[in-house]
Amino acid sequence: MLFSRHILMPWLFSTAVMFGISYVWHGLALTDLQELKIPLTLYFILALIVYLVIGLALTIGIHKAVQYELISLKGPFPLTASLLGAAVGFFVYLVIFVLGMTFTKHGMMHVVVDIIWQMFEQGLGGLAVSLGIIWDMHKRFLEQERAS
After folding, report:
1. C-alpha to C-alpha distance for 143 and 46, rounded to whole angstroms
2. Within a domain: residue 145?
3. Residue 144 domain flag
4. Cα(89)–Cα(22) distance, rounded to whole angstroms?
5. Does any domain span residue 12?
6. Residue 120: which domain range?
7. How many domains would you assign to the chain?
8. What is the value of pTM for the model shown?
9. Which of 96, 75, 83 is CA-nearest to residue 124?
10. Could you report the per-residue pLDDT of 49-107, keeping only the tens digit for each?
C-alpha cells in the first residue's frame, strides 16, 4: 500500500518542504547553485529524486516507529519525528561527505555548518511527516464519524 493516503501525503509534504528549503539555502542564501559544474536542470532533477527517497525513508521509518511503539502519539510526536529526521540528516550528510559530493570547500567550519543545516533540513522533513500523519489521522476520524 505504498500509494495510500497515509503514506503518500506525508511523503510528498516532507519532500516538498525539504526540497524547498534546500533551494532557499543553496540557491538564495548561498551561491552554491551558481558554482555547479552540471546543468541546473539536471541538478534539480537529481535533488528531487534524492529528496523523494529521503522523504519516503522518513515516512516509512516514522510509521514503523509509531507501529512498534518506539514513538508515542501521546507525547510530543512532532518533536520526536523531527529528532528522528535530524538523525537521518546527520547520516545523509556523512554519506554525502564520504562520497565527496558536498558544496563545502572552505574548511572544518563549513563542514560543521553543513552538518547542522542537513540535520535542520531533515528535521523539518520529519516534522512535515508527523504533520502529514496527524492530518491523515484527523481525516480518517472525520470519515469514520460521517460513516457512523
Report:
1. 37
2. no
3. no
4. 12
5. yes
6. 5-137
7. 1
8. 0.88
9. 83
10. 999 999 999 999 999 999 999 999 888 999 999 999 999 999 999 988 888 776 656 67
